[in-house]
Design goal:
This protein is of the alpha/beta class. Helix content is about 35%, strand content about 20%. The protein has 13 helices and 22 strands. The strands form six sheets. It has a four-stranded mixed β-sheet with strand order 20-21-1-22, covered by helices on one side. The protein has a four-stranded mixed β-sheet with strand order 4-5-3-14, covered by helices on one side. Helix 10 (about 285-295) packs parallel to helix 12 (about 355-370). The protein starts with a strand and ends with a strand.
C-alpha cells in the first residue's frame, strides 16, 4: 500500500492508542491465570493479534470484544503436542512465549516472517544448549522442546529486555529461581513494566541487587481485571506534529507511567532548542521520530544506537536513507548517530517504510510539511493500524492506494 500525503497541517485532539508493551504483558499474565480476567482498552494491532492467536493455540480461553478481551485458563505445563504458534512479525510474541513453551516438554513450533527469525534469539539458543533442549531454526520457523527447571539463569542485559521478560513469565512455574544479568541492562523500563504487570496478577520478582532478579517459590498467577494505559510510543508521532507547524492535543497517557518512551516530550523540547546529545538506551523505539524532528530542527547526536540494527529494520540506516531524500545529512556509526542541521526540501523520490511501522509513521509526519509518497505504508498495522485514519481526522491530507 502506498500513502500519498499532501502538504497539510494537523490540528485537533486525539487519544493515544493503548500501549502495546503493556497490553502484551497483561494478556499473557491473564492467560496464565486459572480464572478469566477482563483486559479493557484492548487494541488489535498485528502484534497483539499474534500474541492472542498464540495464547489461544497454547490452550487459553479467549473471548475478543470490540475493545476488551476476556482471557484465562492457560496451563503452560500442558501445551498441546506439536502445536504451531503464528507469531507473524512480532518479536515480543516470540521472545515472550519461548520460555513458556519450554515448560512442558512438548514440541512447539513458532512460525512467522523470515525477518522475525533473523532477529537475535541467541539467549534462548544458549539456554537450550545448556539444558539439552531442542532448539531448531528453519526458514520462518523455530521448533523447541524441553523442560525448564528452577535455577539461576544468566542473561545479557544489552541484547533485548524481552528475554528477561520471557523468563519472568515462565520461572514462577518452576520454583525458586534467579535471573542474573551478565551485562549492564538496557531498556530497563520494559522490565519494570513486566514486574508491575506481574504484580497485579499476584506474582512478584524482586531485584536482589542491580544485576539479579529473584523469584520465590509457590507463586501462581491470579485473575485480575485491568485496563491498558495509553501508549507513549504512538503518542510521540501524534505529538510530533506540534513541531511541524501543527496544533495537536494528545490525551490518554498515564502521568505515572513506567514506559521508557515517556521522555519523548523532553527530547522534543531539547531538539527544538538546539543540537542536543540524547541517550536512547532506554527508548530505542523513539529513534525514528527523534531523528526526523532533529533533521527538521537543529540536528542532534544520539548515543547507544547499536540496537537499532536489530529492530523491524536497521532503523538507523533506514532513516538515514529516507531522510536523505529530503536533503538531510546523517552519519551512522557503530553506536552513535549524528544528524546534521541542514535545510530540508520536498523528497526527491518515493519513500519506503522498510516494512517498519515506526519508519512509516515518522515519514508521514515529515511528509505533512513537504508532501510525499510512502511505499509499504501498511507497516503501521504492526502497532497502530488506525494511524492514517487518525491523522486524516486531524486534517492531514492522505490517500491510501
Amino acid at each position: 500500500m502506498k500513502a500519498v500525503i499532501e502538504k497539510s497541517r494537523a490540528s485537533g485532539s486525539v487519544t493515544a492508542p493503548p500501549s502495546k508493551s503493556v497490553l502484551h504483558r497483561m494478556l499473557i499474565c491473564a492467560a496464565l491465570s486459572k480464572e478469566e480476567s477482563v483486559i479493557k482498552n484492548a487494541y488489535y494491532s498485528e502484534d497483539i493479534l499474534a500474541t492472542l492467536d498464540c495464547l489461544e493455540k497454547m490452550g487459553a480461553r479467549v473471548e475478543r470484544g470490540v475493545s476488551s478481551v476476556k482471557i484465562g485458563g492457560l496451563d503452560p505445563l500442558n501445551i498441546p503436542e506439536d502445536v504451531v504458534l503464528p507469531c507473524r512479525e512480532s518479536g515480543s510474541t516470540l521472545r515472550f512465549l519461548v520460555p513458556l513453551a519450554l515448560l512442558g516438554g512438548k514440541r512447539v513450533t513458532f512460525e512467522g516472517s523470515e525477518k522475525l527469525f533473523s532477529r537475535p534469539l541467541g539467549v534462548y539458543e544458549e539456554l537450550s544448549q545448556n539444558g539439552g533442549f531442542l532448539f531448531e531454526k528453519g526458514a520462518g520457523r523455530l521448533t523447541v522442546c524441553g523442560k525448564l527447571s528452577a535455577g539461576e539463569y544468566p542473561v545479557p542485559g544489552n541484547v533485548s529486555s524481552q528475554f528477561i521478560t520471557g523468563l519472568l513469565f515462565a520461572l514462577p512455574f518452576c520454583g525458586e529461581s534467579k535471573i542474573r544479568l551478565t551485562t549492564e541492562i538496557q531498556s530497563k523500563s520494559y522490565v519494570d513494566i513486566t514486574l508491575s504487570v506481574m504484580k497485579k496478577f499476584g506474582v512478584s520478582a524482586t531485584w536482589q541487587n542491580a544485576g539479579t532478579l529473584y523469584l520465590s517459590s509457590g507463586q501462581t498467577f491470579k485473575a485480575h481485571d485491568c485496563t491498558a494505559e495509553g501508549d507513549c510510543s504512538s503518542a510521540a508521532f501524534l505529538d510530533a506534529f506540534n513541531f511541524f507547524g501543527g496544533s495537536v492535543s494528545v490525551s490518554g497517557l498515564d502521568a505515572e507511567t513506567l514506559q521508557g518512551d515517556r521522555v519523548y516530550k523532553e527530547h522534543f523540547e531539547l531538539l527544538e532548542k538546539g543540537m542536543p546529545v540524547l541517550d536512547i538506551a532506554d527508548c530505542p523505539d523513539l529513534a525514528p521520530i527523534l531523528m526526523t524532528v532533529a533533521a527538521f530542527k537543529n540536528g542532534a547526536r544520539f548515543k547507544n544506537t547499536a540496537r537499532l540494527r536489530m529492530k523491524e529494520s536497521d532503523r538507523g540506516e533506514a532513516m538515514k536513507k529516507e531522510l536523505s531524500a529530503f536533503g538531510a545529512k546523517i552519519d551512522v556509526f557503530e553506536n552513535e548517530i549524528v544528524v546534521q542541521k541542514t535545510p530540508l526540501h520536498s523528497p526527491e523520490r518515493t519513500l519506503s517504510s522498510h516494512n517498519d511501522h515506526r519508519v512509516a509513521m515518522s515519514l508521514a509526519v515529515l511528509s505533512s510539511v513537504f508532501g510525499g509518497e510512502i511505499e509499504g505504508a501498511e507497516a503501521v498495522s504492526k502497532s497502530f493500524p488506525t494511524f492514517f485514519e487518525v491523522i486524516k481526522n486531524l486534517g492531514i491530507r492522505v490517500d491510501l492506494i
